[in-house]
């Protein structure tokens, strides 16, 4: 299955990209002497894509397992190479589960299924970066 997106230059250093969902996202970067940002950084958006992909897996799996959460979030941090072209050579994904009487083993199973089997973005990252994950319960 092929995905196709169109990215349109909006002037300056700003681009707008569509998505098969019909939604759009604005991308830009830091420009010296310019304080205003209009969009998201393309590289950092890769980290958001990783979190989104894995998070959708985790919530979907926990839903099927009838696990209730008060809240759930992920922090993703990436280390860029020093040399151009700069890319993430190491990435850490922290999963935070919130709730009382959390079923820790089911939460762990959901994360592991995402990491090892379902998350395509995670698999793409593994082609060029060392990926670490950690689970936290609150």
Q: How would you sum up the global shape?
A: globular
Q: How confident is the prediction overall: mean pLDDT?
A: 96
- Here the CATH topology of the largest domain equals GMP Synthetase, Chain A, domain 3
Q: Which homologous superfamily in CATH is the superfamily of the largest domain?
A: K homology (KH) domain
Distance between the termini: 39 Å
Indicate the CATH class of the largest domain.
Answer: Alpha Beta
Count of helical stretches: 3
SSE series? EEEHEEHHE
Low-confidence residue ranges = none
Q: What kind of sheet is the major sheet?
A: 3 strands, antiparallel
How many E strands?
6
What percentage of the residues does DSSP assign to strands (E)? 25-35%
Main β-sheet, spatial strand arrangement: 1-2-3
Q: From the alpha-carbon coordinates, what is the Rg to the nearest angstrom?
A: 17 Å
The level of helicity is 25-40%
CATH architecture title of the largest domain? 2-Layer Sandwich
Count of spatially separate domains: 2
Structural class: alpha+beta
Protein name: OsmC family protein
InterPro entries: KH_dom-like_a/b, OsmC/Ohr_fam, OsmC/Ohrsf
Pfam families: OsmC
